[in-house]
Amino acid sequence: MRYIFILLTFFISITFLKANEFEYKHLALGTWEITGTHYCPNVCALDDEQASSYSGTIIELLKFEANVGDKNCRDVSYLYRHLTSTKFVQKNRYHPARIGIDGDTVVEVSLYCGGLFGERLTDMASHFYIKNQNEILISFDGVNFLAKRIK
After folding, report:
1. Quick one: pLDDT at residue 86?
2. I need a labelling partner for 49 at 20 to 30 A (CA). Which of 2, 21, 40, 120 fits?
3. What is the pTM of this model?
4. How far, in Å, CA of 17 to CA of 11, rounded?
């Protein structure tokens, strides 16, 4: 009986984690547009003029491909990490609240082209944080760009 209880608890935990993970994956998929809003909380490789040039860029994050402007990533895979605020600060050297992310956990997403063990995309939208269901923050060259869901 004890083993059945342990297995049942394990199954429910895994199911909850998978459901939670699917919810975030579902949130990342869609069509996004970079707004004029950008944050440079640390040292940035782009000045304001360069950062503003990305305003209006369309990003499509689909199940099997990603399109960023005129660049295409086929057989895309998404790596999701759940970072505590402390881990976020250790990695980025600033608190997530400085870029408008509240809460104790930050969902970080990285894109890979060419399947599960493909190459990590290194251009715009290769790395982003889910702010909420209608906004993501895309990190590129030290700048975090706000992108809003358009579809």
Report:
1. 92
2. 120
3. 0.77
4. 10
